[in-house]
Model the fold of this input.
Amino acid sequence: MTNTTIDFNLKTIEEGHHKMLYRGIKSLKCPFDYVTYQMIINELKPDLVIEIGTLFGGNTLYIADLLEINKKGEIHTIDIEEYVDSELVINHQRIKRFLGGYQNYDINLTKNFETILIIDDGSHQYQDVLNAFEKFKDIVSLNSYYIIEDGALTELGYGKNHNGGPLRAIEEIKNNNKYEIDRKWCDFFGKNATFNIDGFLKKIK
Done:
């Protein structure tokens, strides 16, 4: 026996995720979810990833690099305002950036893509999560995913700040018979050991 102490919980992981960098760019991503995205993108090999919520672009760059490994696909990343200042993000051949929020994204831009994956890492406000899902739910390809991030906000005590946030929205979205919660990814490291609690929604119809 040693005197080594192991002491971590969701709060300490949250503190760490705020310090996460990818290639020197802030990404604010739970490391469990980084690993999960790598596996999902390798399996799906999407032609198009739509990311709602760019912020500094660390996660955008990570996904773009994964697409580059696959030698196919591009990411359309959407935000309200411009926060990106890294040339790695600005000049990446697989990244296209859009401002003005998800509401102003032209859905016609998705017509020529076959396999489409969507990640909602936007405001996390209950109504925004629902509205974004309503806009994009029909363009997700069969057996691909609509991933709603950061349901863990409720567990961390921020639910009221987001009017119930992603988890409240997911409770309603679960009634959509074209999607199911994929427990494979939600529970990969343990029951909902992810910031995206119940948020890996698989298109089944």
Q: What stands out?
A: The mean pLDDT is 96.
